[in-house]
Amino acid sequence: MKKIVIVGGGAGGLELATLLGKKLGKSKKAKITLVDKNTNHLWKPLLHEIATGTLNDELDHVNYFAQGQNNSFSFQQGQLSNINRNDKTITLNNVVDSKNQVIFPETTVSYDVLVMAIGSTSNDFGTPGVKEHCTFLDDQESAKRFRKSILSTFFRFSSGLEDKQKLNIAIVGAGATGVELTTELFSMVKTLGSYGFEKLDPSLLNITLIEATDRILPALPKSASKNIQAKLEEFGATVLTKTKIVKADENNFYPEGQDPIPADIMMWTAGVKAPDFLKDIAELETNRANQLVVKPTLQTTRDDAIFAIGDCACSAKPEGGFTPATAQAAHQMATICAKNIIAIVKDKKLKSFAYNNKGTIISLAHTAQGVVTTIGKNQMGVKGWLASCIYKMLYRFHQVALFGIFKTFRLVRANKVYRSIRTSVNMD
What we know:
By secondary structure, the chain is an alpha/beta fold. The protein contains 11 helices and 27 strands.
């Protein structure tokens, strides 16, 4: 029985483990093991909603142990430290608790097929001071820490402990995360004000969104980018384009050739890279962003027994360029990777991966804008309620991949009931 090990329980890794568990694990044709340093999964595009309290992470996260039990795969907690390609084993570091006591010792896991689905982290591009002074939204824990910190700050303003008239927030990186976080912060403070917290309203916020390129959201057509920038400015944000940050200190960002930008809260959402430890791991080929370079079959270029999917994979597109590090790309990669692993088990020919860009929708608090791909691969602009529905459906498709249609429907109903009895902003 083949041993298939998947490292990383993000959007691609967890969907892949679930698919293979149903197709191979249930029938005992293979043993499927999912490895992750955490015990719970949260869809990464939701992190800005966790950070601003819009989403309750306790209700929307997925427990790996339970998901494995329900879908015929096993879960091993641990963080990858090494790959031994000769012995076909991986080494996982110790797992410690909050008191730094070891709960799971260093262990070795053997594989016949290994899938790297580790995801990505924020890329500070080596900019001095950024790592020390900026907040990153890389995972559920960092989003929760930010939420608690920003709530504390808001409450200090409300109670009069802060003598400032404005709260200066600077966000570097005007991709989806930066734009969505900006709008959610305005919505968050407005909602808190409606709960009776005095002095809390959108006029309190002085948010500056900083982008190095000539426009925000470069993945969108120029017209959509322009419309969304106008919406951000309508919220009250200041948008700076063609502004490259070259340094940061405790209270300022320093743009190249311009005056410093002061900030009480400094966020960095400008780009992603694969984790640093992946660089040349096990002598596998990697690129400058530490991504594992893969062939069209999603197998790594130097070892056919090792696949890579999602943000940690560098997959070239036939027409030129590379597959973007997005949730929809991870979903599509997981689907093809599952088919190819099943083909290996059945000794059949492997398929090539071809990314199908279905569009990009940006959440703007209580509305949304973006583009969707229509028949003939043309893109059509959408906004308002239709865009909001499409944006929400992307997450529902992820849930369907994990739980099936019936359970996802029940989750949606349960979420509506829960939202009807709790505050609109999670203040825990």
